[in-house]
Write a structure and sequence with these properties.
The structure holds two protein chains of two kinds. Chain A contains nine helices and nine strands. By secondary structure, chain A is α+β, with helices and mostly antiparallel strands. Chain A folds into two domains: 223 residues, 2-Layer Sandwich (Alpha-Beta Plaits); 33 residues. Chain A is elongated, with a radius of gyration of 25 Å. Chain A starts with a helix and ends with a helix. The N terminus of chain A is likely disordered. Chain B is an all-alpha fold. Chain B has a single domain, classed as Formate dehydrogenase/DMSO reductase domain (Formate dehydrogenase/DMSO reductase fold), CATH 1.20.1630. Chain B is globular. The two termini of chain B are 16 Å apart. The C terminus of chain B is likely disordered. Classes of the chains: A alpha+beta, B mainly alpha.
Chain lengths: 299, 414
């Protein structure tokens, strides 16, 4: 099913590219590599130990803060979000009636297949890699924070307290480890193997099998398979994803509408150039008619 | 034809009590700009990971660009439609647009984290990004505005370059340069004027495209695929009110008679423009059935109602009345309402409508952010006053019949 969909998308996109040319299409027409990797997060396994948070900070040379209070054991504390000091955080979601154990939700960049941040970035500093991660290039970034406006998961963070060269900070799927055939720090450290790193297509197969084999353990919803056109990070859970504060997103890629508008306005510069010619023509006609009427009055 | 008026430098004194207040406001703003440069954006603003854009983008940039729309609307009517009677307002509109865009650029510079990389979009292109298009168009258009202003500089200084001392030797070369510029620009200016209009329509609309990518993070009252069209139509509608507002204000502070014969004519054109904008705005609301949100008394629904009623419907009705259009006071009031309406619309689109999913508190601009925005506006007025004293921008009644010079139509065909 997945391969057929990928094939169809590939065929359509290739045909479109052939007829319209690459420039007329946005990033949403790009075919993600079938070998791209991702992380499957099984929330039914997570025990909320948060060793992934520490391992992540260590791997990214961020200060490992003395463990902040268990954020949501007490519901009066605000839920934590990834920020400039922590690329991933785990929040607890208690069952209202206590009938089931709490669900712990790890939050980090979803590494979308069609990232809104990549489409939005004014200089193209954010790029979806063939291998899966969505990476940010410090040498290009101007710090406009449009990626933060665009991200449907509200993930990119900004170093507001840095005067010179503030960074956009977000999970990079441990690119420095995976490029040497390592695995992300959070995946490696997880004591209950709630996290699985691998080819996204394989992860989807694994997840589907889990849902099939343990229907009482999992909701029949693999979050990230289709949301916003698909993400490299996938979630399995026992609870409704809306209750776990996952944004409810449609299946089409986030940048779709904007890119069709942008590429419509700028289709080979035809609309702007036509407007230019029309205005030029009007100017010429008006000028000449004015001249003519003046000449007539003189006569 | 009123050949009795011609642009000339203003001779009134520069400092008045009001100007001194503006100087204080400007200095206060500059202090906070320095604070931002030395201690980071977080030290001065209330921006956060949830609210990455605030007052500076909403007002200094988005509203700033919209309110500088007088530049391209007046160019369209004066040069493209070739209506010479409007030429008295073209120079003031041009100066306002030029300074407006300059301050938009300043606003962008202090808002982006790495201001010294502002040139990056020139080399690093992302054609998918609406912001890239806005950035490029604004940069090019600003250059075009400065080029359109050049003939006013040459007119002022040809034959009057008079440097003293060691620089005296430069007088002749500078004068020749000015004359060369004047000759070249006189023949090519129409290219720049049309380019200016095209660039304006492009980036005025693309400013609206900016927020579409925020998707569900933007309140449905404003989030619509026709945002670029709405931004363009509202910018076109606010162009003439801005010229009227600025012209009446300038004539008042400089003790001149307002150019009512032109301003009234501009006034009669505003109602249809506002009408088109309103039709699209309401039509969009009906088609997407977003009026249901108006029944809930939320900040969003209240702000939307104020924006539409006070900013569009009331001034639209006012501009339909001949009595309003003839009276400088009422013309000023109605124009101010349109300006406030567009200002509010941009604030609504970029700040009020933006509701990030994980925000624990809402955003309100800090004292520092407001200081910078007010300070930049004050600085703009101060520089405007310098410009009209140095350059022949504002049309004055001449004591004698002045020959129609080749400069009377800025650069366009003669």
């Amino acid at each position: 099913m997945e391969t057929r969909r990928t094939f169809l998308r590939t065929a359509l996109a290739t045909a479109a590219t052939a007829t319209l040319g690459e420039s007329a299409l946005g990033a949403t027409s790009r075919i993600p590599s079938p070998d791209r990797t991702g992380v499957l997060i099984d929330l039914t396994a997570c025990i909320g130990c948060r060793s992934c948070e520490k391992a992540c900070s260590k791997a990214h040379n961020l200060p490992t803060l003395a463990s902040p209070p268990q954020a949501d054991a007490n519901s009066s504390l605000p839920r934590r979000r990834p920020d400039a000091h922590a690329l991933t955080v785990v929040n607890e979601f208690k069952e209202a009636n206590g009938s089931r154990p709490s669900t712990f939700v790890k939050v980090q960049c979803m590494h979308c297949d069609y990232p809104a941040c990549e489409s939005a970035c004014i200089v193209g500093a954010i790029k979806k890699q063939e291998s899966g991660p969505v990476l940010w290039d410090s040498d290009m970034c101007i710090g406009c924070r449009y990626c933060m406006v665009a991200c449907p998961f509200q993930i990119p963070s900004f170093q507001y307290d840095t005067a010179l060269k503030p960074d956009i900070v977000k999970c990079d799927m441990c690119i420095n480890r995976t490029k040497d055939s390592g695995i992300p720090a959070c995946v490696e450290i997880c004591p209950v193997e709630a996290l699985t790193y691998g080819r996204r297509s394989t992860l989807i197969e694994v997840a589907k099998k889990k849902i099939e084999n343990y229907p009482e353990r999992y909701r029949n919803h693999l979050y990230g398979e289709l949301e916003a056109g698909g993400t490299s990070v996938l979630y399995l859970a026992n609870a409704d994803f809306n209750d776990l504060k996952f944004p409810a997103l449609r299946r089409d890629p986030m940048p779709g509408t904007v890119e069709s508008i942008q590429h419509g306005i700028f289709a080979y510069f035809v609309p702007p150039l036509s407007l230019y010619s029309i205005l030029g023509g009007l100017m010429w006609i008006n000028k000449n008619s004015k001249k003519k009427s003046e000449e007539e009055t003189i006569e | 034809m009123s050949t009795l008026t011609a642009p000339a430098p203003i001779t009134k004194r520069y400092f008045t009590p009001g100007v001194i207040v503006l100087v204080i406001l400007a200095l206060n703003g500059i202090a906070f700009v320095l604070g931002r440069l030395f201690f980071g954006i977080g030290a001065v603003t209330n921006l956060s990971d949830q609210f990455p854009w605030g007052l500076w983008i909403g007002v200094d940039v988005a509203a700033g660009v919209a309110l500088a729309a007088g530049g391209f609307t007046s160019a369209a009517i004066g040069h493209v439609m070739h209506r010479e009677d409007y030429h008295v307002i073209i120079r003031t509109a041009l100066l306002t647009a030029m300074l407006g865009y300059t301050f938009v650029a300043f606003g962008v510079m202090i808002d982006i984290g790495r201001w010294y990389y502002i040139w990056h979009p020139l080399l690093m292109w992302n054609g998918n990004s609406a912001l890239f298009e806005v950035g490029m168009c604004v940069m090019i258009y600003m250059t075009v505005l400065y080029i359109e202003f050049l003939p006013i500089v040459t007119e002022r200084f040809i034959g009057r370059v008079n440097l003293k001392g060691v620089f005296a030797a430069l007088n002749q070369p500078i004068d020749s340069l000015l004359r060369l510029l004047d000759r070249t620009l006189g023949k090519t200016m129409f290219l720049f004027i049309i380019a200016g209009i095209v660039l304006s329509t492009l980036h005025q609309s693309s400013l609206g495209t900016l927020m579409i990518i925020a998707g569900p993070k933007m309140h449905p009252l404003w989030q619509t695929p026709i945002l670029p069209l709405l931004f363009l139509l509202s910018a076109v509608a606010v162009g003439f009110p801005m010229i009227i507002f600025e012209s009446i204000l300038a004539s008042r502070t400089f003790g001149l008679k307002p150019e009512m014969h032109v301003l009234s004519k501009l006034g009669t054109m505003i109602a249809p423009l506002l009408g088109v904008y309103l039709a699209f705005k309401l039509g969009d609301m009906v088609i997407r059935e977003t009026f249901v949100y108006l029944l809930e008394p939320t900040t969003e629904s209240i702000m939307f109602t104020i924006e539409i009623v006070a900013g569009v419907i009331v001034p639209l009705r006012m501009f339909l009345s001949p009595a309003v259009v003839r009276s400088p006071l009422w013309l000023f009031v109605a124009s101010s309402l349109v300006i406030l309406g567009v200002l509010l619309n941009r604030i609504n689109n970029f700040i009020v409508a933006y509701t990030p999913p994980f925000a624990t508190a809402s955003y309100f601009p800090s004292f520092g952010e407001i200081s910078v925005t007010v300070g930049f506006a004050a600085l703009l007025v101060l520089i405007y006053r310098v410009c009209v004293k140095v350059f022949p921008v504002i049309s004055l009644e001449q004591g004698h019949v002045r020959p129609v010079t080749k400069y009377s139509i800025r650069g366009s065909a003669k």
